[in-house]
Design goal:
The complex is a heterodimer of chains A (174) and B (733). In chain A, 33% of the residues lie in helices and 16% in strands. With 174 residues, chain A is an alpha+beta fold. In chain B, β17, α10 and β18 form a beta-alpha-beta unit. Classes of the chains: A alpha+beta (174), B alpha+beta (733).
Chain lengths: 174, 733
């Protein structure tokens, strides 16, 4: 049956079965593929979107349960000041490796900062524990969240390791 | 500009000359990223570089991007020698095209194999631009210099931008890549400087980039249901209920070719949405011939190991000196049994592929780490000539070795051909992805070492119990092979490696730092164990074992390792962590480990605490790394190292694939708990820049993380971790 949804401030209609997860309505019916499929069981967070600003797993949210709540996806989160700051911090800290989980990470981080503008490390761990990053970019995700929260200054250049010239260690030709 | 019109080449003039050049590279003319002559081909200097009249430089990135950063890193090499501002550069992913030579994301090879050849591509473009300017000005090219996208005639100070020169430059014959002059690395402006991921802005906006995001007009969606036991075959399938399900267009049995990296038996369900295809799966009834793996289980593997370990080994694999004789003379003999589990790759983007078969031609959109072998397998299994197959390489949502395989490509192509005409996106669900992986094989190592009266290791024996190939019991299964050259071989005078094998019917394959991810845990933990048995500091033991700087034989492709480089990273990491100088709280300890693989040298110190409950908290990891004389993109490099270390820590803390009645037990991330943010430690990274050829970073940071953690837990609790994942119940106070 047809469902009318409010997605990123626009009214969209999807004619699907009532039990269709919001994730597949977004991805396959409406062509908004930013939210990702990872587990289908609410375990990885790759599909995270907002319903009225609250982070939910779209793979476990049936379309019939969405109702009039405002759906925000990664495609629309940049329109909010916090979402934009989070996206910017992700770039500044060069967080991304494969990038597959990052839409979900950004949605969870934005929901966290909307509710808790100055999170502690423990707050960040708790809010982000539901989002897997297979590349394990957690260190940079955490520092990006702190920047987006204004807890650390904006990075002008991305993080770099220490590099020490040690030209004498080679045994080449030995 | 009047003369720009004169420069503008016609399409006809942009003939492909295909000049053969060094390093397997070809410069070809007028081809765009998709191998077609396009309007925008004006300013196409070679297969990698196009410069538009406005000065925007488009560079093709040849290898698949799976998170290792090649999409940004490889074009940096070209841009450096071309001498343009990085801000002028746009990057496009290559399609599979022999023009680009070896297009692969594997073996941490992209940096090592492309550092020289791609710099030559950039330098050739720069020389062509200089010649174009010189011709225009009617001056000798030697009087011209190029920098930051501008050619200058030095005596007169006249300048001309690359954008205005590119169309003319594209008509100049390509110089010889082998002899072209390259910059002195001390003059580099791009290489060696941190560059943010080129596609990251698209990623944070959720734009379609990944294989799974492929959308084509009229596209259908497929699931492919395979036997829960690897290698099982379809006896019969009841499809009527499936066909009657909403949205289902087609359902059919696929007869496989019996090869894991090929086409499995199964049932394809094709529908107008993936959700509907996947939902119809519940109505599918299949009778399977489960085959020989049905009787296998992790419990059986463990029992078989116990039996094999108790008896004489099936074969002597390698012998240096006489370990038995040395053990008889040893002041002290230490024995220990180590084991590690099967692991899944668990890429967060499940396996998927989109395929369209139309008018006898096949087009594929694949998140593949190695599309060329994929093409070969497609050709073989489907009987479609390679010339009728076109492969688009998409961004990859995690590779780790899983996408070196082509099973998902073959399945998608087979289904698309059966459907005919419409594009079909095949997507695995998570149980299907975990259940039909090419697992990192488990293994069992039964070790005996001898120490002399000074606490030096004088003898080393390993009885390695592993798995035989499904089709040839005399041969080790894929990725289950023993090696004769893993250190401490060549470091200890008397070494014996023996092997026994048991049958195993699951698909296995390479996982990030294949083999090393397991053997480093075993050997580097046992060395630490021996140090403690001898009452010695583990770092002293490691340095003594390595001995003086020299080259040692090592398994291919490395062929040799440089002991001096391992020593240097060990000494550095000990200094970074204040090894032996810090007093730590109770039940907190530091562990040290090192390993050399994929041409990279890594030493790591882990500080971990263990709660009275047994819960392990990894507090910090220090890493000293030597990947040679250049770190091309330092920010990407740091990210790779931190990710690799945390990946290794995550494996040790909780990952195992187990089997029961031939079926993988873990079906999702509840049973296969990948590491999450709260468990991720701080990771401090230092690179030693040494006078050695540079190498890659996707893999070599991982192996030492596991033994360093196990060794830290021993330091904290006195309990030795000989089996992973760590059983925290055994660590209770």
């Amino acid at each position: 049956m047809p469902y009318t949804l409010n997605i990123n401030g626009k009214t969209r209609t999807a004619d699907v079965e009532a039990d269709t997860p919001l994730l597949w309505v977004l991805r396959d019916t409406l062509g908004l593929v930013g939210a990702k499929f990872g587990c289908g069981a609410g375990l990885c967070g790759a599909c995270t979107v907002h319903l009225d600003g609250v982070a939910v797993r779209a793979c476990r949210t049936e379309v019939s349960a969405v109702g009039a709540r405002a759906v925000t996806t990664i495609e629309g989160v940049g329109a909010t000041p916090i979402g934009r700051k989070v996206q910017e911090a992700w770039i500044d800290h060069d967080v991304i490796q494969c990038g597959y989980c990052q839409a979900g990470q950004i949605m969870s981080a934005t929901a966290l900062l909307t509710k808790t503008p100055q999170p502690t490390d423990a707050d960040i761990d708790r809010a982000m524990a539901g989002n897997l990053c297979r590349c394990a970019t957690y260190i940079r995700i955490k520092s990006a969240i702190k920047q987006a929260a204004g807890l650390t200054p904006r990075l002008a250049a991305p993080p770099v390791p220490r590099m020490l010239a040690m030209m004498s260690t080679s045994t080449k030709g030995a | 500009m009047a003369d720009d019109a004169f420069f503008a080449p016609t399409r006809r003039s942009l003939l492909k000359t295909g000049a053969a050049a060094g390093g397997g590279l070809f410069l070809s003319w007028g081809l765009d990223a998709h191998g077609a002559v396009a309007d925008e081909a004006a300013g196409t200097l070679n297969a990698y570089v196009r410069i538009a009249p406005d000065g925007v430089v488009t560079i093709i990135s040849k290898n698949p991007e799976c998170g290792q950063g090649v999409m940004t890193m490889l074009p940096m090499l070209i841009a450096e020698e071309l001498d343009v501002a990085w801000s002028q550069v746009r990057i496009k992913e290559a399609m599979l095209d022999e023009e680009y030579g070896f297009q692969s994301a594997g073996g941490s090879n992209s940096a090592r194999m492309n550092y020289d050849p791609l710099r030559r591509v950039g330098a050739a473009g720069r020389q062509m631009l200089i010649e174009a300017a010189a011709t225009n000005w009617k001056v000798p090219a030697a009087e011209c210099a190029a920098a930051m996208g501008v050619v200058t005639h030095v005596p007169t100070g006249r300048t001309r931008s690359y954008g205005k020169l590119a169309a003319r430059a594209a008509l100049i014959p390509a110089p010889d890549l082998k002899t072209i002059a390259l910059k002195d690395p001390k003059d580099f402006k791009i290489v060696g400087q941190p560059a943010r991921g080129f596609d990251s802005p698209k990623v944070v906006r959720g734009e379609p980039l990944f294989g799974i995001d492929t959308r084509l007009p009229g596209m259908l969606y497929a699931v492919f249901v395979k036997c829960p036991v690897h290698g099982g075959k379809v006896k019969s399938a009841e499809l009527d209920a499936v066909l009657a399900s909403p949205g289902v267009k087609k359902a059919f049995v696929v007869k496989g070719n019996g090869e894991f990296n090929g086409l499995a038996d199964g049932v394809a369900i094709v529908a107008d949405s993936w959700w509907r295809a996947n939902k119809a799966r519940a109505k599918l009834q299949v009778e399977w011939d489960e085959g020989p793996a049905a009787g296998q289980s992790s419990a059986l593997f463990a029992q078989t190991n116990d039996r094999l370990a108790a008896g004489p080994a099936q074969k002597l694999f390698h012998k240096d000196g006489d370990a038995d004789e040395a053990l008889a003379k040893a002041a002290r003999v230490v024995k220990a049994d180590y084991s590690y589990p099967f692991l899944a790759h668990a890429t967060l983007e499940p396996q998927n592929c989109t395929a369209q078969y139309k008018d006898g031609k096949l087009e594929i959109w694949a998140p593949s780490q190695r599309p060329k072998p994929g093409l070969d397998i497609l050709t073989k299994v489907l009987g479609i000539p390679a010339s009728d197959i076109k492969i688009h390489i998409t961004r990859i949502g995690g590779g780790f070795g899983r996408r070196l395989m082509a099973d998902f490509m073959v399945e998608a192509a087979w289904i698309a051909r059966e459907v005919g005409g419409a594009p079909v996106k095949l997507l695995y669900d998570r149980p299907g992805d975990l259940g039909h992986d090419f697992y990192r094989p488990g293994g069992f190592h039964h070790l005996t070492a001898g120490l002399d009266d000074k606490g030096r290791i004088i003898a080393w024996k390993n009885h390695f119990v592993t798995f035989s190939d499904r089709d040839d019991p005399t041969k080790a299964a894929f990725a289950c092979e023993a090696s004769a050259a893993d250190p401490p071989a060549r470091l200890v005078p008397d070494v014996t490696v023996e092997v026994s094998m048991m049958p195993m019917g699951f698909a296995t394959g390479p996982l990030r730092a294949p083999r090393y991810n397991a053997i480093a845990f075993v050997y580097q933990s046992f060395v630490d164990e021996l140090a403690h048995a001898a009452g010695r500091d583990p770092l002293d033991m490691q340095l003594e074992l390595l001995g003086s700087p020299r080259l040692l034989p090592f398994p291919p492709p490395e062929d040799q390792i440089d002991v001096g480089r391992l020593r240097a990273v060990l000494i550095k990491v000990a200094e970074m962590a204040d090894w032996g100088k810090t007093s730590l709280p109770p039940r907190t300890g530091m562990g040290i480990a090192c390993y050399a693989c994929m041409h990279g040298y890594f030493a790591e110190v882990v500080r971990a605490s263990v709660a009275d409950s047994g819960a392990v908290k990894v507090e910090k990891v220090w890493v000293a790394a030597d990947i040679g004389n250049m770190v091309i993109n330092p920010t990407g490099a740091m990210n790779q190292v931190q990710g690799g270390v945390i990946d290794g820590i995550g494996q040790a803390l909780g990952l195992a694939m187990t089997f029961d009645k031939g079926r993988p037990v873990q079906t999702n991330f509840d049973g296969y708990p990948l590491v999450r943010m709260p468990a991720a430690p701080e990771v401090e990274v230092t690179f030693l820049i040494t006078d050695n050829p540079l190498s890659g970073l996707g893999e070599p940071a991982l192996p030492p993380a596991l033994p360093a953690l196990g060794n830290a837990i021993f330091a904290a609790t006195g309990r030795r971790i000989r089996s992973i994942p760590i059983d925290m119940r055994l660590l209770k106070a």
